[in-house]
Amino acid sequence: MQYNFIMQILDGKLISQTVKDGIKSELENYLSNGLRRPHLVAILVGEDGASRTYVDSKERNSLALGFDSTVLRLPASTSEDELIAIVEKYNNDDSVDGMLVQSPLPKHINENLITQTIIPHKDVDGFHDINMGKLAKGDEGFVSATPLGVMMLLEAYKIPTQGKHCVVVGRSNIVGRPMSLLMSSNRAYGNATVTVCHSKTENLEFYTKQADILIAALGKPGFVKADMVKPGAVVIDVGITRIEDANRKSGFYLRGDVDFEHVQHIADYITPVPGGVGLMTIAALLSNTFKAYKNHLGL
Asked: Does residue 202 sit in helix, strand or coil?
């Protein structure tokens, strides 16, 4: 069957740059009035390639906006106690506005314990239980960067969400759960009816084909096929997986959870990988850091 939808790419590169330009412009005004720069600390433990790339991007983008950026690259042998001591040091450093510890962590470190050690008002990743609880209640706090980036993208393209059926595939605390809370929240870009699916959902295609807005966050490359998508749907691909490819200079390429090649022909809107949600995640993290900075200085 042929569909006549005019597919539009949700351009993460364009919208993330718009977000960053807005931050930079506002910050320049503060700096011209003698205020200090925002300061983001990122801690990387181990040698995970994707994590290194992500942290490098955070550092590069922070500096480009005029932030101070501290990146600690620690060996995989770093103990849990050593990492906690480092986090506590920056908790108590009044010059630091935002802090994150890049996941995944080595198996001998309790990731949840480290997340809860970061004080909530510096938790710009939005993973602390207090920030997650505020999100669930609809209170002001820090929202996990990837779901926040998706919301920025929907708002930038003025995609209607109120009353729409949104299906989120994935239930992680980093993406799926906060994404479902944001989409169902009582706000201009929210008020959707949300279904959360996961690895134990039976007849998954039954739910995905009902979605006006389909958000895929599984970490399974090419999982969402065209026959799983409702014609005219908005498709948000959160997945970013490195696929090894010896023929490429980098040694890999990136692929999302959605079979973009085929789904693009029936979707109304779709995010590419790369160039979609990943770039919005960085923009949202910087936005959270700038918010922490303004909160800290009472701006």
From this structure: coil
Helices 49-65 and 12-32 pack at an angle, to 10 degrees, of 40
User: Alpha helix locations (H) across 118-271?
Assistant: 129-137, 145-156, 176-184, 204-208, 260-263
Question: Whole-angstrom Cα distance, residue 39 to residue 42?
Answer: 10
**What CATH code would you report for 144-278?**
3.40.50.720
Q: What is the CATH number of domain 37-119?
A: 3.40.50.10860
Tokens of 72: 């600690």
Domain with CATH 3.40.50.10860 in the chain: 37-119
Nearest to residue 84, comparing CAs of 63, 61, 109, 108?
A: 109
Q: How far apart are CA 163 and CA 281, in angstroms?
A: 26
pLDDT, tens digit only, all 299 positions of the chain: 455 556 899 999 999 999 999 999 999 999 999 999 999 999 999 988 888 888 999 999 999 999 999 999 999 999 999 999 999 999 999 999 999 999 999 999 999 999 999 999 999 999 999 999 999 999 999 999 999 999 999 999 999 999 999 999 999 999 999 999 999 999 999 999 999 999 899 999 999 999 999 999 999 999 999 999 999 999 999 999 888 888 998 888 889 999 999 999 999 999 999 999 999 999 999 999 999 999 999 99
Asked if 240 and 273 count as a contact pair (C-beta separation under 8 A), the reply is yes
Residue 274: asked if its preceding bond is cis (omega within 30°), the reply is yes
Which positions are catalytic? 58, 102, 125
Q: 255 with 275: CB under 8 angstroms?
A: no
The candidate with the shortest Cα–Cα distance to 281, out of 2, 12, 21, is 12
Range(s) for CATH 3.40.50.720 in the chain?
Answer: 144-278
Return d(Cα 268, Cα 197) in angstroms, integer. Answer: 22
